[in-house]
Amino acid sequence: MSPSTGTNAQLRRSLGLRGAVAVGVGGTIGGGIFVLVGQTAALAGPAALLSFALAFIASLAIALPYAELACRYPQAGGGYAFVREVLGRKWGFLMGWVFWGAYVFVSGYVTLGFGGYLNALTGVPPVTGAVALVLACVAINVRGVEVAGKAQVLVICLAIAGLLGFAVAGAHAVKLVRLTPWAPNGLPGTLSGALIAFLAFGGFDMVAAAGEEIAKPDKNLPRAIFLTLAIVLCVYLLVAFTALGTVDWYTLGASPAPLSEAAQRFLGDLGGRLVAVIAVVTTAATANAVLVVTSRISFAMARDGLLPARLAKVQPKTGTPLVAVLVSGSLLILMAVFGSPASATAIGGFLYVLHFIPPLLVLLQLRRAKSASPAFKTPLPQILLPLAFAMTLLLLVASGTKGIAGGIFWIATGTAVMWIRRGTTKRETVQ
After folding, report:
1. Can you identify the CATH homologous superfamily of domain 8-370+381-430?
2. How confident is the model at residue 131 (pLDDT cuts 50, 70, 90)?
3. Model pTM score
């Protein structure tokens, strides 16, 4: 047993169903509604509603196999743990690296989105607000995931109530004429919008990434994943319809605070500020969830000897992977300072979609090997698995040149790190 896999590297199962759902929904709603709805509208126009529908279908097709794998391997790291167990350490490293990079890049639009809404409220520079948010999330997570989970429950309840209030209050101002022309940028715009919307549904995999800290994982993991998607779908449809029906799609797409823009139309300046307050709270919850998942991925890889052992160190008192939290927090700060929402969604979107392909291959291999059945099995695998592969390939193409190039660069960097790490390990073994 290596030092990184000792008993001090075990995480506590302290998250119940509510806390797990809060991590998933908190990692989804904040960035999806308050930041990505504008970007989706800019690409697809009113057909952004169709983009969200396509993204939901893709998410559901992938979530069902993912839930089965999460029940088979309820370990820290989510998809990384699945791939490592079945395909080996080399593929496990690449999977973990892509998964890690996806959320590091995705954090850029989340933290900068928070900074944009905070700027609308207070005048604080967006980057300053984004960095302050990451530091606050690090401080919360240092105290342990149970504390972070409780904070997440409170924030998400407030966010859902506020968003539903937005949808109800704006219903009378919706004008269907604003939904025409339906698809001004044609099918390519709708598909590009679907990639952005797919990021907006990202969150169910965060639940699996924290699987080692979820109590009764055979029941709570699949339930948390499905509840995350169901809650998010309902909220997205209501809020996106209200936003697109009260503001012209091109105005919504150009706004740095799209839902505040919409709220001002039917609630005045006070309404816009109230929505900005809710946006600040929910994007903060998203950033917290992103920090949870990125730190657990690096922790899991370090525990397996694929990254430096310090990242696998767990604080005895809190059960928190302190070094992993600090390192991931530092990367999130770098993205906030040097990144942009456009590059974050393009590169993060490519990596995020790509990281679902190896777990799907793992499930195919397990099904062919007729391994022991888990508590949850994917229904209609002959239909859902091919659909999941088709959706991922379509979304990869939709990520565009910037996303593909940035994603390939991140993978090449990870490959270099893997070979350097392997060489270092061999020298240490010889000595």
Report:
1. Amino acid/polyamine transporter I (1.20.1740.10)
2. very high
3. 0.76
